[in-house]
Amino acid sequence: MIRKAKGFYETFDxxxxxxxxxxxxxxxxxxxxxxxxxxAMAELGIQDRTVFVSPVGCxxxxxxxxxxxxxxxxxxxxSAVATGVSRALPGKVVISYQGDGDLGAIGFNNAxxxxxxxxxxxxxxxNNSIYAMTGGQMAPTTMLGQRTTTTPFGRDPVKExxxxxxxxxxxxxxxxxxxxxVSVSDTKRIMQAKKAMRKALEIQRDGKGYAFVxxxxxCPTNWRMDPVASARFVNDQMEKVFPLxxxxxxxxxxxxxxxxxxRSTIEELLGKGHEGPAAKVDPGFKExxxxxxxxxGQGVLSLGLVVAEAAxxxxxxxxxxxxxxxxxxGGYASCSVVVSGKEVGSPAVDSPDVLVAMSxxxxxxxxxxxxxxxxxxxxxSLPEPKAREGVRVMAFPAARIAAEAGTPKAANTALLVAxxxxxxxxxxxxxxxxxxxxxxxxxxxxxERNRKVFQAAFDWAKNNL
Length: 465
Ligand code: SF4
Prior knowledge:
Pyruvate-ferredoxin Oxidoreductase, domain 3, Rossmann fold, 16 helices, alpha/beta, single chain, binds iron/sulfur cluster, 2 domains, seven-stranded mixed β-sheet
């Protein structure tokens, strides 16, 4: 019977309001697969709890068609997004709809790992053996000898490898509950495709785990054929390379149950000293944005972490965002810290109120980012960095103070004093000291040594700042 599937919106308003035709080309398999999904959602009574994840590709506008929850995933990431949705919203029926470029190339690892974990969603994989939306380039599923815009003489296995057989590869995994390859090239095959799709959705309805259905689907436009020849191409050519059939059906088995996770308190997970109070909204507290920067090994990230810990323990909202190169020692390192009286909107700090620079490179890189009214504190042995007008630039002899106090590596602790003595972080001294001590919980011998550096720096600050 020719009629609109119940799971569709009344009209497809992608182009203009009131449009009844889809945006797909005549003879395209996407429209058929969409109709099967729309019918199955309604027939199984799952429409109101279905979340559909659209891919990037010709089917990027699925949300214009399906009258259910909709999320658009980035290219190749629909399986990752579906994982997030199904984990965050257990009980929903989640569908990841992906093409062969999307799933078989850029998103293969996402899709493969999700299948291997047995995530709770149905993955509908549309294989038309070509990159369609971008103009007919070779896809991972392009067949040997098949001409595309990037294989004008036909796919050559020596240069371009072999077509990826996704069902066969997923069938090596233990977790999937259901794997089947179907076709939408003629009525008989469409009926079988509908059965496989329903089964995959029933598995989701019953909360049983991962189901995968691959649809061999015509793309008349990029194959440069008419719809009838395209359907024949699927039957005569594609099925030879991608045989139809069920690879696995474990839907009659009970749903696997995860081992219970023992309830752990934050203290058990992180150790004592981390169980700070819940942050409280305080409109009177001026938000402070810090950038701590230098080389890896100077303790730049730890310095920022001590400020962040002290802020958390003081009931402030706080974020700590590190950034560093791949080197363990000597590479670039910085962290951004935001201390606030309200929820932190973004942890990124592009214009810090306070910059602490422990290396010349860091001072040169970030000094100009501090706006008027801000503060730049730099290690005194470095040349004075160029800052904007209205910025206070302060040289702090952190390295010398730390060396004279007997722990040259604790220059970062001396710099913590500069912030504390000038009350740049707005945090109580006892919270700062407690956070400093806690940062050496794993190396208790360093607690006293850093306290000594802190005191020496404090004495210097009293006399000099
Ligand atoms: S380009 Fe191919 S896959 Fe894309 S809508 Fe047209 S026929 Fe369908």
